[in-house]
Amino acid sequence: MGYRNVDLSRFSFDGAQAETIPDLSTLDEFDRKRLLYAGIDVNARERSGSFMHMNHSGVHCKSTQEGLELMDIKQALQQYDGLPQYFWKMVDPNRDEYTRAAAEHLHGGYFIRARKGAKIEAPVQSCLFIKGNGVGQNVHNVVIVEEGAEMHIITGCATAHGTREAAHLGVSEFFVHKGGKLTFTMIHNWGEDTAVRPRSAGMLEEDAVLVNNYVLLKPVKDLQMYPTLTLAGRGSVARFNSVIVAPEGSYVDTGNRILLNAPDTRGEIIARTMTTGGTIINRGHIGAYQVPARGHLECKGLILGNGIIHAIPELEGTVDGVELSHEAAVGKIAQEEIEYLMARGLDEDEATSTIVRGFLNVDIMGLPRELEQAVEDQINQLDASDAM
Question: pLDDT tens digit string along 130-183?
Fold first, then answer.
């Protein structure tokens, strides 16, 4: 299936500068709630650093952890002579009209680096926020984990309450050097009138690990992304975990791609998708070009109501000895599962809700407890009557 286009001329990419926010807890109640459901703790409890970009400006940046470097990408480009090793190295600026727009008119973004050997125990949080009608936002993010370092980033992307007709164009590039480990958790809370076009890619060196978690439980008008990880070093490992819900009116075209370009590499893509009236296109691709290499792709979809799910798994093996597997399934809740739970004292709505919560389980992601609780709260708010 082809990708849908977004008419960028409908959005304003100039004139939406925002003032610096020294303390995120001073945001109003509506904004704090929107950010909470995007995984952002405005009080920065148990966080090693916080970054926020609003509309066309970086408005907050604070780091408290030795070995962690956190700043606006514009500052990093100036400080490090344009970041020639990293900036636009994994994503082609001429890939499409959205990358070209981000390249030609950069508003900002985050630069996050874990220095060699640093163990950044508390997560780093970053927020990309749009507040105002008709705003178009261009950001470019660069994440670097140096040799032997470890880091967890939680990035929340959201629109403010009442925002209409917004667009987000985001380029993200990830570099995990030898023996490094990055866990990257992204939570979207965009809004029913927002068009979103992230363009992301990453590279892993020898014995590097990258775990990418993605959560989308709220409406979004039109989202399309297909992040790609290239495993370039022996023994590197990549995992994608996704939990996606598309309510009525949402169009979500998403997927993940892993390229096993070195021996002894492993890749895994696990996706759970559920539609309660929206459309989901769930793509997945694992390509193996060296041996030994192993990959597994799992796409499972649940249809509640009249939504649509397209599951498109793809495995590509080019040399003898690769081990690739996939499992794909799309369907509705089995009546016998509901009857089983009803026989144990639950009514039909309770039985349906229990099954949905189990299907959208995020335990595999290893999220911080307060973030896991916020995700669970959103799952509990899903209307079980959509399954009837």
Answer: 999 999 999 999 999 999 999 999 999 999 999 999 999 999 999 999 999 999
Q: In Å, what is the CA distance from 356 to each residue of 195, 280, 284, 359, 368?
A: 27, 17, 23, 5, 22
Of 44, 5, 94, the closest CA to residue 368 belongs to 44
Note the helical H segments in 286-368: 335-342, 348-359
Measuring CA to CA, which residue among 220, 274, 223 is closest to residue 245?
274
At residue 233's C-alpha, the angle toward residues 231 and 237, to 5°, is 50
Nearest Cα to Cα of residue 69 among 144, 155, 140: 144
More confident residue, 126 or 344: 126
Return phi, psi of residue 288, to 5°: -120, 125
- In Å, what is the CA distance from 105 to each residue of 167, 169, 255? 14, 11, 27
299 in Cβ contact with 313 (< 8 Å): yes
What number of H helices and E strands is found in the chain? 6, 20
Predicted confidence (pLDDT) per residue in 248-303, tens digit: 999 999 999 999 999 999 999 999 999 999 999 999 999 999 999 999 999 999 99
Neighbouring CB atoms inside 10 A of 290's CB total: 17
Contacts with 340 (C-beta within 8 Å, 6 or more apart), sequence order: none
Q: Which two tokens stand for residue 321?
A: 């000895």
Q: What angle do CA 241, 197, 120 make, to 5 degrees?
A: 50
- Decide: residue 358, CB within 10 A, 0-12 exposed, 13-18 middle, 19+ buried: exposed
How far, in Å, CA of 99 to CA of 165, rounded? 20
Verdict on whether the full-model pTM lies above 0.90: yes
Distance CA 165, CA 150 (A): 38
Type of residue at 378: Q
DSSP letters, 146-202, are: -TT-EEEEEEEEEE-TT--SEEEEEEEEEEE-TT-EEEEEEEEE-EEEEEEEEEEEE
- Please provide the size of the chain in residues: 388
Q: What are phi and psi of 332, to 5 degrees?
A: -110, 175
